[in-house]
Amino acid sequence: MTRPEEEMGQIGLARVGRRRVLCPACNAAGSTAAFTYAEWSGFAATTTDSRRDFDMAMRVNPDLAFDAILRCRACGTVFTDRAPSEEALGSFYHQYYGNPGYLAKLDQKLALEKRRLFLLKFLTRGRRFLDVGCNIGCAVEAARWNGFAATGLELDDAAVAVAREHFPRNEFVAGTLDSLSPGLTFDLVYCSEVIEHVPDVGHFVRQLAAAVAPGGVLLLTTPDSGHRQVRNDVMRWDTLRPPEHLTLFTRAGMRAALAPHFRRVVTLPNAKPGVQALAFKGKAE
Ligand SMILES: [Zn+2]
Against a cut of 0.90, is the pTM above it? Predict the structure, then answer.
């Protein structure tokens, strides 16, 4: 058992996470520091939510920590200058998300996803659906309800077990995009509030794009750090929660990240600070 003062003593250990120099969204060089880790840690200590707990986790395990939060001068994306290893993130999530309230507001979530999928189905003729990071599978069930053959992909084994129990007529795979058979593609790929957690954005976007069939479409949602409600004071925005969230995109940043892999990318207007991007694959790609 480590005493708290011993854990605190580790704050000076060298960072071991992978350096991120280029913008993870648009690849531009020359990002500027929005604030340092010390400034973040001082602020997080004044919060009464997970930001304070997560800062403690970064003090205990330097692999989770960063030296500065950077902002891209080209696209405005805000990101940690270090990305933790998959192993460090795995144990972090295991520690902080051991017993989530999976079934809270299940009916509301399902109803919302059914409405969303009802609209999305007009964007593509094909009826193969994939949700990347499906949690307990509400969007997957909503896609099936709207006529899709639906698959959900989820890293959290416990969430997959709940999904299989509640929505047995769909396919659920425990794992990441690496777990899918190579060459397997879908007409509608859905990825909601996942990319901000991912340590290697470039790899993730390439895999997402590869899962979209010719003529298919990707809907991706993530927080929007460029939104007028939050951009002037991102430190106090409660969505800035390292190391849970590592990259907070802007609409321009998300378009830049997706553009090399799709024929057309659009981001939708949103009164709330959230990016909603639609990316279309050409028929011949
Ligand atoms: Zn950028």
Answer: yes
